[in-house]
Amino acid sequence: MIIKPRGTSDILPKDTPVWQKTEKTAREVAELYGCGEIRFPTFEATELFARGVGDTTDVVQKEMYTFEDKDGRSMTLRPEGTACVVRSVIENGLAGEAMPLKLYYFTSCFRYEKPAAGRYREFYQFGTEQFGADTPAADASVISMADTLIKRLGIKNVTLRMNSIGCRSCRPAYREALVAYFTDKKDQLCDTCRERLKTNPMRILDCKSPVCQAVAADAPKVTDYLCENCRTHNDTLLSLLSKMGIEYTPDPGIVRGLDYYTKTVFEFTAPIGLDPKTGEEKYLTICAGGRYDGLVEEIGGPKLPGIGFAAGMDRLIAAMKHSSQDVPTQPAPQIYIAPLGEAASTEAQKIVYDLRMSGIRAESDVVGRSLKSQMKYADKIGAAYTVIIGDNEIGTGRAILKNMKTSEQTEIEIGSIALILSKEGL
Asked: Residue 426 pLDDT > 60, yes or no?
């Protein structure tokens, strides 16, 4: 038997209604905030991610699905969406449109990681990218969009963590402070973080190793090295969030895992259930993002500030379910037409077609079941009503409508089924 690749998932019909609800809510929120939808390829030139995401990040160094096409070009399955959107903005001349430019997308991404709860090798995201405004108000608008989505989905016990990681002016001084701090402790770091010490020491703060996390606990805080511009930007943003009633927790440990971020970075975390190993509440980042004012230029476009976020669809849904929200299910048929005989079967198909054209979820037998088997099937699929049609019903145009829940039976005209179901609120 051929099975799905490790770290991927099948989303089955019983699960898709909650995905559809989440997607519908995300789309409504994006449009409420004035965003237009953008779609982009599943794979891109590898150079896009090396330049955009950063060749010192784990994503580029360890996690990308990269291959050589038949023309010898290096291609990569998209590991994230922001760089793809930026490439599209540049290539299609969107930087010349009215600003701010607000975009949203749904996408699948691919990273070769160790599979775990909420972490897959193919995963799905809803994201937004907004260009052309470098103000704290723009940051507050994007963060409030994420907050609105989370609240509309009914997710509870959410924490918003905020930080500023500075800009090109103040980052060098902070880098020197980190190098000095970690150099004295490099023997305690993992092999990857020893390499990061040479290339990008801020990445050490994002290491998942408990040992490296313990070493980094007393590392210099980036907020102590912010220039006046970055400090004012951050203070104004936090003031705006407070004014909007959006609660947050300052967290200087948040740096995000991609090189393009500047100034504002943020993460929304929420519980998704109990950890099977420890029995304790397990929290995951369900949405995260930040500002990237140099990314468009880095990829070859004009000077154009940007900010955005991505929300993991799997994680949003897990958090929704844990919050005891009503999870939608696949809608059951409103009526099942059970035919007796060949002529009745032909008539049943016409009736079902007409009902469907009227917006009624109708089903009938297409397998050749006996009447007894049809009634069992109608009950199994959750049909609200059934109608049995034989030669007599075809001749008179009348039949018995049975309520499958109460077993109540009513004689009706076959042509009035749609009207009757409508009056029943189905």
From this structure: no
Per-residue pLDDT of 261-292, as tens digits, reads 889 999 999 998 877 778 788 889 999 999 99
Question: Whole-number mean pLDDT of the chain?
Answer: 91
* Cβ atoms of residues 203 and 196 within 8 Å: yes
pTM of the model: 0.89
Q: Which of 326, 140, 318, 110 is nearest to 244 (CA)?
A: 140
Whether 387 contacts 335, CB under 8 Å:
yes
| Residue 252 φ/ψ, nearest 5 degrees | -70, -5
**Per-residue pLDDT tens over the stretch 156-188:** 999 999 999 999 888 888 888 888 888 888 888
Q: How far apart are CA 79 and CA 112, in angstroms?
A: 9
* Beta bridge pairs of residue 36: 103
The predicted model gives 65-81 an average pLDDT of 94
Helix (H) or strand (E) holding 385: strand 385-389
Q: Which fold has domain 16-170+226-322?
A: BirA Bifunctional Protein; domain 2 (3.30.930)
**Which of 205, 222, 223 has its CA nearest to residue 214?**
205
User: How is 260-275 classified by DSSP, letter by letter?
Assistant: T-EEEEEEEEEEEEE-
d(CA 18, CA 259): 34
Tokens of 395: 């001749």
Query: Which CATH number applies to 335-423?
Result: 3.40.50.800
Write the CB contacts of 158 (distance below 8 Å, at least 6 apart in sequence): 150, 268, 269, 270, 286, 319
